[in-house]
Specification:
alpha/beta; 6-stranded mixed beta sheet; 4-stranded antiparallel beta sheet; 10 strands; 38% helix
Length: 271
């Protein structure tokens, strides 16, 4: 079972400007979104989880092992990360080679890596692009390639950095389905994201970062019920949640579908 334990985590580049200030968190199987304004410490936090940075003090323990004794390369067997900009991740000339690179790098055989790469490309919906140059495809498609590259590694933990960037409605629905599939496979999924609608519809748990500290942490519905606290973090509510607030409804809705299902009851209608 995947588990991450964070104990009194501190990080800074400059001692006078601490980025993370004593973070204490535990992650289990709940798909979790980390939200907050730019500069809140989200990206630094996930880089520490991935081993791309090391804490100044405190501990990150993944499946009982302290990351202080593991290199980023060794951590890659347990935790995969999809970068915000796929162009920071993609460097091969063929889609299949790109998606196979990660699996091969963590010790999968060529046959296993190719099989997992094809399954991952099928899962994200671009298997037909397998022999193309990634840079002949759109930015949205390159994002899907980078997601497939991490899925093919079959790590227990997957981090998404702004997964919905450059995606239209259809693309967002596809990524939501991918995340739900990963949850069904018992993967621990974490994202840092600014898309509040996507958070509300996709993630069970939401953590709010503000100025290097955890401001809120709990079930997504409860977090989006704390409008005043979210305003302090300069965060907006999901659109449907904000609409229902303006309508004077007490219940916190997280999707349009949810609102429509309960709308007749709320307004006292029978049909």
């Amino acid at each position: 079972m995947s588990n991450i334990e964070i104990k009194e985590l501190h990080f800074y580049y400059d001692k006078e400007d601490e980025i993370l200030k004593g973070i204490n968190l535990n992650f289990d199987k709940k798909a979790t979104a980390i939200i907050g304004q730019n500069g809140a410490g989200k990206t630094t936090f996930v880089k520490l989880l991935k081993g791309l940075l090391k804490p100044q003090s405190g501990d990150i323990i993944i499946n009982g092992v302290n990351t202080k004794i593991l290199s980023a390369a060794k951590l890659s067997k347990y935790i995969g990360m999809v970068f915000q900009n796929p162009d920071d991740q993609i460097f091969k000339n063929k889609v299949i080679d790109e998606v196979m690179f990660g699996p091969l790098n963590i010790g999968q055989s060529k046959e296993e890596a190719e099989k997992n790469a094809k399954l991952a490309l099928e899962e994200v919906g671009i298997l037909e692009e397998i022999n193309k140059n990634p840079y002949d495809l759109s930015l949205a498609e390159r994002k899907l390639i980078s997601i497939a590259s991490v899925i093919a590694m079959n790590t227990e933990i997957i981090i998404f950095d702004e997964p919905t960037i450059a995606q239209d409605y259809e693309g967002k629905q596809r990524i939501k389905k991918i995340i739900n599939n990963l949850k069904e496979k018992d993967k621990l999924v974490i994202t840092i994201i600014h898309d509040m609608d996507f958070v509300a519809e996709t993630f069970e748990r939401t953590i709010v970062f503000a100025e290097g500290e955890v401001l809120l942490d709990g079930p997504t519905r409860e977090v989006f019920s704390n409008k005043e606290v979210l305003e302090k973090a300069y965060l907006e509510l999901p659109h449907v949640t904000e609409l229902c607030n303006r309508l004077g409804l007490n219940e916190t809705f997280l999707s349009v579908e949810e609102f429509l299902e309960k709308g007749d009851i709320i307004y006292g209608k029978n049909n």
